[in-house]
Amino acid sequence: MTRSGPALAWETLFDLDPGSDSGSGPAPLRDRLERAIRDAVHAGRLPPGAGLPPSRALAETLGVSRWVVTETYGQLVAEGFLEATVGSGTRVPAGGRHPLAPSGVHEVRAANDEQGTVPLRAEYRRPRLDLGPGVPDLRHVPRARWAGAVRRALDRLPDAEFTVVDRLGHPLARTAVADYLSRSRRAIVAPDDVVITHGATDGMAGVVAGLRAAGHTALLVEDPSWSRLREIAAAAGITPVPVPVDASGIDVDALIDAAERTGARAALITPAHQFPLGAALSPARREAIVRWARDVDGLLIEDDYDAEFRYDRRPIAALQGLAPEHVVLVGSLSKSMAQAFGLGWAVMPRGLRERVPLADRARPSTLDQVALAEFITTGDLERHLRAARGRFRRRRAALLTALERELPGLEVTGIAAGMHAVLQLPPGVEAAAVRRAAAGEEIAVSDLTGYRASASMPNVDALVLGYGNLSDAVIDEAVARLAGVIRSLA
Hints:
Layout: H1 5-13, H2 29-42, H3 55-62, H4 66-78, E1 83-85, E2 89-91, E3 105-109, E4 119-124, E5 129-130, H5 143-156, H6 171-184, E6 194-197, H7 200-213, E7 218-223, H8 227-235, E8 239-246, E9 249-250, H9 252-262, E10 266-269, H10 283-295, E11 299-303, E12 327-332, E13 344-347, H11 350-353, H12 366-377, H13 380-406, E14 412-413, E15 420-424, H14 431-440, E16 443-444, E17 446-447, E18 462-466, H15 475-489
Parallel strand pairs: 5-16, 7-8, 7-10, 10-11, 11-12
Antiparallel strand pairs: 1-2, 3-4, 6-13, 8-9, 12-13, 14-15, 15-18, 17-18
């Protein structure tokens, strides 16, 4: 396609430098575009008040999918870095103030700079009316209990171990995680099966490296699904193959058809609580997908996304317990506590574990790993989860009540679990337009379309509403203001 002169200017302005993602390959396009826009604003190439091109035009100019652009714009608007107004597009906030200096932003400055004028980085507060998915309750991070675990770890560690970081993880952490998963997720796991990671994305990077070393070139993925893990697979040279999801979880018949068509023998799934549709994989499909993995000597990557939070019954057992030789169980503290802890685990079959280039990957610090072991073995993790389940159960009920009152007749889907629900929008109301307008009202929401793995998936105008980090005191206000936005666009 021949591009016009003005279009070429945007190519120059937004240099999508490949960068890197923790050494695992090129950074995802969304992250690269976000960084490019920030750099353009910081450097003054996009001055205050400057408008950005429509998402479709910028996507065409840069040769990326429109989703990459809309997701990037949405994130930057939610942070207050950009602003969006219905009918006026997306632009840099006017008024002469640096976009990094709204009242909700803290700058961390260099310790050796006496004037405090050299920012090392900037941290963004979540919006007050936070209906964004995937974020736990940051007001209830167990700071004191974690600090106690760190102190106990410091007391417990022998001097010699302050220089050692085991390639698979500290034995105390691996043992604690194995015991925890055995009793809470009914996994079949021994300490030797556990690899301690920096989180789900780090665990996924190790798994796909092992798959690539074993000759895999394709990975079956849920459609829609969280994009980050798909991007990690693609960066490693493994092509994501979308498979549709419905109210019973991933369509296993469609998965088998896609596997036969592409030769894929590995699949990434969220059986306990699918993101974003909120389904649980039905018992019949659980059996069918395990049978497929055994038949083809394949591998299932089980992302244990917010599996601890089920409100109508006990959390269902991990799929890994049905076929430990064919399932990798990936988990972390990101949804149960907070992403900032940077700790997770991957339970790997021995054959895969031996192929993962673990020597090339940095493990979390020994101190953090032993603190994790202390946190689990003293029961602090499970005490925190019990309290969180109670909060989220009550918050979900309050959210559904408010939605029924303010938006009667609109369907809310997803099982009673996790930290999000899906709100179907009225005919003719575009989810992307609602998300942009809501950001202007200090409301963070997410568009279901942004999680599509395939452009051929039917476009469903729905919002993914998170309530993990939504203050109980503002639930009614958040829903009322969101309802006003939706009515204004209907």
